[in-house]
């Protein structure tokens, strides 16, 4: 019972960490008006949070392996709450930017520690199930976060949303301080950390494949998030509220398939589950490219298939990484998260280049082919390793 409670506590912690971005996204217009600033500066407050969140993964990962999960999580939660209050009461956009940067730095601890704790506490099939439950709770943030932020912002302004977030973070801190044990294995972090730790994770055929898959998947996902609303507006004349429903359906389909992905991983094994789930996800991008412009019904169906396939893959990489690197679990998760965030950042940028000629088909087809090529390359890497060391691959 206590393990199950800790699992949900860790999941809710990651949910609260993700709210730092999801609560805020529908309130950017309010911030621009209240602080008398520009859209560029407000968008910069989003980018600073994301960049800090990405870069600090590879700082806090090794730190959690050496110093312990609890020792870095609890102070980070206090800083996160304080930064959220700072965002609420910042009198100028420059101060808001500083507090948003601090928010991103402190919230970066949460996903690293969360995945490491699950890897520490659960073994074998239970680890896959635990990671699936964690991802299920985490996926609720992008699904309902903007809705909660919009409701609070409508009645209490963006300041109310940040205060609400600070209260949630302090509640998580209080419960974590009371019940979360130190889960770092005794043998973890005994070796002196060096940059070669990152090299080992990147060069290992299995973890290297996972990093590649994570990058291209997040690249394709953010192409969807940025350009799908434009497609709906231009081709089908959707209003923002209608577009929100379509994006909500994408998240909803991901949530429904996370547990199925856990079962697939436990039944078929790590390598086969990883390859075929990501292969399916890549194929849904190509399917979307060929069908989305033919009718609205086909577009919505393709979006739902994309979300469903993404949900299948959500917990697999973290489970495999925590099994492969038992002494550097947090470091491995930190590197994986960093690569994913890089994919998120590059997706909209390169997508804009691909969309320069105004062709949605070219944009999504190119993204899908890139995704598919990466999946097949990763399959080759894993296959060569399987022949050399078959027992290590299945975990």
UniProtKB/TrEMBL annotation:
PANTHER family per the UniProt record, alphabetical: CHLORAMPHENICOL EFFLUX PUMP RV0191, PURINE EFFLUX PUMP PBUE
Organism in which the protein naturally occurs: Paenibacillus rigui
Source domain of life: Bacteria
Pfam family, one: MFS_1
Keyword Membrane: yes
Chief subcellular location: membrane
Protein name: MFS transporter
Keywords noted in UniProt: Cell membrane, Membrane, Transmembrane, Transmembrane helix, Transport
Compartments, as annotated in UniProt: Cell membrane
Keyword Membrane attached: yes
SUPFAM superfamilies hit by this protein: MFS general substrate transporter (SSF103473)
Domain Major facilitator superfamily (MFS) profile intervals: 6-392
Cellular-component GO terms for this entry: plasma membrane
InterPro entries, per the entry: MFS (IPR011701), MFS_dom (IPR020846), MFS_Efflux_Transporters (IPR050189), MFS_trans_sf (IPR036259), Tet-R_TetA/multi-R_MdtG-like (IPR001958)
Topology in the lipid bilayer: Multi-pass membrane protein
Parts of the chain that traverse the membrane: 40-60, 72-94, 100-122, 134-152, 158-180, 210-229, 241-261, 273-292, 298-326, 338-356, 362-382
Molecular functions per Gene Ontology: transmembrane transporter activity
């Amino acid at each position: 019972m206590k393990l199950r409670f800790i699992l949900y506590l860790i999941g809710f912690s990651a949910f609260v960490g993700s709210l730092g971005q999801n609560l805020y996204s529908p309130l950017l217009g309010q911030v621009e008006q209240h602080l008398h600033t520009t859209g560029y500066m407000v968008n910069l407050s989003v980018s600073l949070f994301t960049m800090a969140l990405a870069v600090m993964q590879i700082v806090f990962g090794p730190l959690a392996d050496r110093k312990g999960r609890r020792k870095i999580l609890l102070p980070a939660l206090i800083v996160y709450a304080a930064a959220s209050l700072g965002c609420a009461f910042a009198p100028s956009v420059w101060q808001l930017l500083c507090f948003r940067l601090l928010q991103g730095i402190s919230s970066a601890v949460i996903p690293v520690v969360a995945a490491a704790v699950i890897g520490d506490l659960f073994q074998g099939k239970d680890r896959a199930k635990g990671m699936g439950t964690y991802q299920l709770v985490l996926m609720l943030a992008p699904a309902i976060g903007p809705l909660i932020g919009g409701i609070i912002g409508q009645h209490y302004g963006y300041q109310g949303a940040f205060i609400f977030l600070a209260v949630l973070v302090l509640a998580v801190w209080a419960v974590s301080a009371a019940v979360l044990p130190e889960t770092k294995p005794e043998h973890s972090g005994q070796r002196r950390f060096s940059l070669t730790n990152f090299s080992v994770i990147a060069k290992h055929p299995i973890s290297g494949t996972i990093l590649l898959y994570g990058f291209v998947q997040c690249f394709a996902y953010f192409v969807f998030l940025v350009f799908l609303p434009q497609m709906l507006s231009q081709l089908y004349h959707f209003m923002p509220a209608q577009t929100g429903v379509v994006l909500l359906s994408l998240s909803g389909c991901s949530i429904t398939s996370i547990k199925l992905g856990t079962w697939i991983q436990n039944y078929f094994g790590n390598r086969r589950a990883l390859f075929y789930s990501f292969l399916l996800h890549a194929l849904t991008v190509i399917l979307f490219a060929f069908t989305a412009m033919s009718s609205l019904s086909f577009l919505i169906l393709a979006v739902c298939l994309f979300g469903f396939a993404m949900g299948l893959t959500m917990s697999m990489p973290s489970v495999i990484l925590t099994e492969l690197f038992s002494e550097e679990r947090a470091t491995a998760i930190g590197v994986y998260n960093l690569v994913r965030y890089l994919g998120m950042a590059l997706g909209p940028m390169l997508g804009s280049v691909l969309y320069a000629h105004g062709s949605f088909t070219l944009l999504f087809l190119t993204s899908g082919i890139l995704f598919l090529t990466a999946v097949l390359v990763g399959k080759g890497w894993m296959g060569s390793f399987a022949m050399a060391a078959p027992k290590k691959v299945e975990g």
